[in-house]
Amino acid sequence: MKTFIKLHEDILTKVKFFSKQLKLKLRKSTIRPLAIKGEETIALSVFKQNAGIGTKKKIFEIF
Q1: 21 and 27 Cβ atoms separated by less than 8 Å
Q2: Of the candidates 4, 13, 58, 60, which has an alpha carbon nearest to the alpha carbon of residue 39?
Q3: Taking the CB of residue 12, how many other CB atoms lie within 10 A of it?
Q4: Which run of H or of E encompasses 18?
Q5: Residue 31: predicted pLDDT
């Protein structure tokens, strides 16, 4: 991602920390390679809910 948003970066560091502490195994379930990592997916969804963004399309436009 090219856009830098402080709130998203803070959430991403917290998600990575908790993922490491809880030893979460975020793996892909398909043969196709994923566009973004599992931790980034979780961080984006938390950012979306925290910022009050309505749709996934708006997230795509932001980033």
Answers
A1: no
A2: 13
A3: 20
A4: helix 6-21
A5: 80
